[in-house]
Every structure is written in structure tokens, then in C-alpha cells.
């Protein structure tokens, strides 16, 4: 039991250890429930997939193929990101700035001459 700091109305929560969450009992509503809804959707999809695989051996093979393709795509994307990071890591900004300053000084000398 708590009281609202603005209107002093009583708000009650009830613990939900099964879902590691709280349920609203009285006096309030949830503002943000997207994460919980997403988790429930993922569980439902996983359950449906397992039921399909139990009844259809071809579906098992199709799902394995899809999973392996997805894994390959993820690995390719990861490799691309690693390559991009290596390219940026090889850029020496200090050396570039030093070279730029030297070119500026050389241009000033030429102008003065």
C-alpha cells in the first residue's frame, strides 16, 4: 500500500512471483507494459513453433534451415562491423592533424617568400 504524492489517493500493488512482477490491485494503471507484452509474444511464438515441430518432421528441417541462414547472416554482419571498426582503428587522427599543420606552415612560408 502506498499513497500518491499528488492526490493522496491509496494505491495497492500485489506481488506476482510467478512472473517476477507486480499486479495492480487498486488505484493505478500501468504506464509502460511493452517489454512484458514482447516477452509474452516471444513465449507464445516459441510454444507454437515447438508444437509444430512435434507434429511435422519437415517443419523441423525447415526451421533448422531458416535458423542456420539467419545465423550466417548475423555472422556476416558481425564480420562487416569488425572490418569497419578495424578501418577506423587504423586511422591516426593525431598524425593527420600534424600533417595538416605542417602543410599550413609550409603554405605560410611560401606566401611570405
Q: Sketch the major β-sheet.
A: 3 strands, antiparallel
Question: Which value, in Å, is the CA radius of gyration?
Answer: 30 Å
Taking pLDDT < 50 over at least 5 consecutive residues as the criterion, the unreliable ranges are none
Provide the domain count.
2
Specify the number of helices: 3
Portion in beta strands: 5-15%
Structural class: alpha+beta
Give the neighbour order of strands across the main sheet: 1-2-3
Report the helical percentage. 55-70%
Distance between the termini: 84 Å
User: Tell me, what's the shape?
Assistant: flat
InterPro entries: Saf4/Yju2 (IPR007590)
Organism: Urocynchramus pylzowi
Protein name: YJU2 factor
Pfam family, one: Saf4_Yju2
Give a structural overview.
- One of its GO terms (biological process) is mRNA splicing, via spliceosome.
- It comes from Urocynchramus pylzowi.
- This is YJU2 factor.
- Residues 41-65 are annotated as: Disordered.
- Pfam families: Saf4_Yju2.
- The chain has a three-stranded antiparallel sheet with strand order 1-2-3, with no helix packed on it.
- The chain folds into two domains: 1-30, no CATH class; 34-112, no CATH class.
- 0% of the residues are buried.
- The protein is built from three helices and three strands; from the N terminus they run βββααα.
- The chain has 113 residues and is an alpha+beta fold.
- 67% of the residues lie in helices and 13% in strands.
- It has helices at residues 34-55, 57-90, 93-112, and strands spanning 2-3, 10-16, 21-26.
- Strand 1 and strand 2 (10-16) form a beta hairpin.
Amino acid at each position: 500500500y502506498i499513497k500518491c504524492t499528488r492526490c493522496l489517493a491509496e494505491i495497492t500493488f500485489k506481488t506476482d512471483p510467478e512472473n517476477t512482477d507486480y499486479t495492480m490491485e487498486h488505484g493505478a494503471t500501468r504506464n509502460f507494459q511493452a517489454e512484458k507484452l514482447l516477452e509474452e509474444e516471444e513465449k507464445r511464438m516459441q510454444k507454437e513453433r515447438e508444437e509444430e515441430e512435434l507434429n511435422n518432421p519437415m517443419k523441423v528441417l525447415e526451421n533448422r534451415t531458416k535458423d542456420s541462414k539467419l545465423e550466417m547472416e548475423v555472422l556476416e554482419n558481425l564480420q562487416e562491423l569488425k572490418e569497419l571498426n578495424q578501418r577506423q582503428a587504423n586511422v591516426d587522427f593525431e598524425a593527420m592533424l600534424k600533417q595538416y599543420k605542417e602543410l599550413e606552415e609550409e603554405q605560410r612560408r611560401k606566401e611570405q617568400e
